[in-house]
Amino acid sequence: MIDVERTFVVAKPIDVVVGYLKDFANAEQWDPGTKSCTQETPGPVQVGTTWHNVSEIKGHETELAYRLEELSPNHIKFVGENKGATSIDEMTFAAAGSGTSITYHSHVEFHGVAKLAGPFLQGEFKELGVTTERQITEAINAL
Predict the structure, then answer these.
(1) Residue of 132, 79, 66 whose CA lies nearest to 109
(2) DSSP assignments along 59-94, one per residue
(3) With 90 as the cut, is the pLDDT of residue 117 above it?
(4) Within 13 Å of residue 2, how many CA atoms lie on the same side as its CB?
(5) Which residue range forms the structural domain that includes residue 24?
(6) Could you tell me the strand order of the sheet in which 50-57 lies?
(7) Phi-psi bin for 113: left (phi > 0), alpha (psi -120 to 50), beta?
(8) What's the pLDDT at 92?
């Protein structure tokens, strides 16, 4: 099991931040592990929308089916699944002056044989957390 949490501030208001981050296809711009992320459900992004995500960790490519599980003005929850893992990405938002404080929590639960890799990947995911914070901040501040 992997757990990484980061809290940081961006220079845009909550509505802009949530509007951008609720579309998981934007992960191509802010998630250093994401190679591609394509919306599969037609129409506007809403609870139940799904994406096909291709990520690379330590040179290993993996595909996950993500869905938007929860969406409110101050909270987003995505759940990604494949046979080897379940990934839960949650973001909460609070006003911070004229900007927004983001708390990003990533939780990955490995299944079957993949459980053996969990302890070895914790450090890699912590490093990705630092890069993700930087890339989210840059992407949102550029909006």
Answers:
(1) 79
(2) TEEEEEEEEEEEEETTEEEEEEE-SSEEEEEEEEEE
(3) no
(4) 26
(5) 2-141
(6) 2-10, 99-110, 85-96, 75-81, 60-72, 50-57, 34-39
(7) alpha
(8) 98
Locate 132 and state its tokens: 């993700």
C-beta of residue 45 within 8 angstroms of C-beta of residue 26: no
User: Which pLDDT band, with edges at 50, 70 and 90, does 116 fall under?
Assistant: low
Residue 80 belongs to domain with CATH number: 3.30.530.20
Number of compact structural domains in the chain: 1
56-114: per-residue pLDDT in tens? 877 889 999 999 999 999 999 999 999 989 999 999 999 999 999 999 999 999 887 55
The residue whose two tokens read 């459980």 is 115
